[in-house]
Each structure stands twice: as C-alpha cells, then as structure tokens.
TrEMBL record:
Belongs to the CTF8 family. The keyword Ribosomal protein does not apply. GO terms for molecular function: DNA binding. Residues 115-134 are annotated as: Disordered. GO terms for cellular component: Ctf18 RFC-like complex. It is found in: Nucleus. This is Sister chromatid cohesion protein Ctf8. It comes from Dissoconium aciculare CBS 342.82. The keyword Nucleus applies. InterPro entries: Ctf8.
C-alpha cells in the first residue's frame, strides 16, 4: 500500500509585515493564505482576448474590509466590524460577503520536493545502490485555515467614477 510522510508546518515568527497591513488580525495566517468561497463565476472584461496563461495571472479585484459604521469603501482596519467584506471586481461589480468560521479546519498542503541522490535505506536492504535520483513525495502542511470569506449573493452593479477631464464644462 503506498504511503507518504506528512510534515508539520515550518516554524514562522508570525505574519509578514506587509500581510499584517492588508488582512485583519482574525484572517491573518503566517503564510498569508485566505480561503474565499464564491457562489458563481466571475466575468472580467479584460480577460476576453488573453490566452490561458495570462488569464491565470489576471487580477480579479480588490478586497475591502469596511468600518463598522461605514457601508462605503473604507481602508481602516482598526474599526472593521469583523464580518463584512467587499470584493470589487473590475469597475462595475461589488460582491458583499462575510467572514465565517469553518465547521472543520482545512489543512493546506504542498509537496515537499527533495531529491535523493545517494543510496537509500531501501536500496541497502535490497542489496543495490541508487543509480538514478528519485523524488521524494513527502507532504508539508503549509497552513491550517479556520475561517473563510463567503460571497453568497449576486454582485451589485456600481457606477464608474468619471474622469474630471470629461466633466469639465466648456467655457463660452
């Protein structure tokens, strides 16, 4: 029966300084990962003419954590109410979401890619030596996620701010 080793997460001092400025403390993780659940499909205007490689690197939108007494766009994390989140997609859509605690925590894992070049214990037991390097398939726990950002409602249309050049009336 095949098996693999699972390693605990590497010790980290805490969230990176730049991540501490972006995510509220309830969502901060040492690696900066966050789980976002979307109900539906995001359509981005800029993605129409791009190939698949460029589409995967496309920016989806901006996450905003509004203040408790402010419904509009706010960048103050000190007053964040702890649950409401907005995702602005492009220039025309806003998704309203909230932070939810997961019923069961989720472990995010990655393959630990180490290459074994010398003889292994299995080679000695079998009486041989390792001629070709083999890749180890050990797994490492990157993060344990306990909360998610859930966007369960349809996007709200928003207007685009016009540039000042277009709104200045012509003088007579």
């Amino acid at each position: 029966m095949p098996s693999t080793l699972i390693h605990p997460p590497a010790q980290r001092a805490g969230p990176a300084k730049d991540l501490a400025d972006v995510l509220p403390s309830t969502l901060q993780t040492p690696s900066g990962l966050a789980l976002i659940e979307l109900q539906g499909k995001i359509l981005v205007d800029d993605a129409d003419g791009l190939d698949e490689d460029l589409q995967s690197a496309l920016t989806v939108g901006r996450l905003i954590f509004p203040a408790a007494n402010d419904i509009t766009d706010s960048h103050s994390l000190a007053e964040w109410d702890g649950r409401r989140v907005f995702l602005f997609v492009g220039k025309h859509q806003r998704l309203a979401g909230e932070v939810k605690k997961l019923a069961k925590p989720i472990a995010v894992m990655r393959r630990r890619g180490s290459i074994v070049t010398g003889p292994t214990s299995n080679d000695h037991e079998m009486g041989g030596t390792a001629q070709n390097p083999t890749s180890s398939q050990d797994l490492e726990i990157v993060e344990i996620i306990t909360q998610k950002i859930l966007f369960a409602n349809r996007p709200e249309p928003i207007g685009v701010e016009q540039e000042q050049d277009e709104t200045v009336p012509a003088s007579a």
